[in-house]
Task: structure prediction
Amino acid sequence: MELTPTQLIIVVSILTVLILLPLAVIVLVRFFVKDDADAPDEDLASSLTEFSSVGDAWQAFVPHLLELRNRLVKALLAIGIATAIGFWIVNSPVLLGDPLPAFLVHHLAPPGTQLQGIETGEVFFAYMRMALVVGIMLAMPVVLYQIVAFFLPGLLAHEKRILFIALPFVTELFIAGVAFGWFFTVPAALGFLLGFGVDGTTIVSQPRVDSFIGTVAMLLLWNGLIFQLPAIVYLLARLGVVSAARLGATRRYAIVVITIIAAFITPTGDPYNLLLLAVPMYLLYELGILLARFVPKRPDDEEGPATAASPG
Result:
């Protein structure tokens, strides 16, 4: 899939907006919303140790277990309904113009690539797996809502604030990673894997349906996960595990680690595909350092220098 200069500018602009929009949210929260100094409910914490027997403790946890069961049932029901919709998307040409496997081949694989099914039922089960993946993606907002709704009553105010920032942050970065993989990483990797040594006469490329779909899904998933790096760095900085200064001082080691991870993830051994993952990972690492600078200072950090400078 080759992009024209205009399409390339549009794609890069969309990716930039998806990556920088969470940064704008964090900056606004940093300057306009302050963390409160609330403490855990001591009565609630102490009540957990006042059970006279195991039966009393079990009775106290039963309502929470019932709520967890109900929310899991709702999440699984949403996945089931979304999987049925996903099966229609995978098989019908109405939405994408082609069934989803043909759509992937036409847009990601080199021209002339054909898929084949060797084992009995291979194509059917490959379609079902794709429908399940599409269903999970479609149902993810409902699943996330059920998870958040279960844990939300037990969170403090500042923890709720972090959670509400993290959800759109993580979602947008994952979408940006999948989009980057769709337009850049996956076509480059498939072009190398399916085009290497193929002359069109004696050697042709006809991968199995299951193998092709698995490779595409794996690459898109890795790209989505890699783009979570700024969110992970920001969360670690928010918890006080790392700091912007410490991350900046370890850049040389980060480059080595990023290169090793990119080499491990890349399905090919050529430097071109390795750089397609390593360079964005390093840029995302730098974005994480930038986000860490907007983490509110902890009280210990503010009192530390004064305490150290005080006599005796």
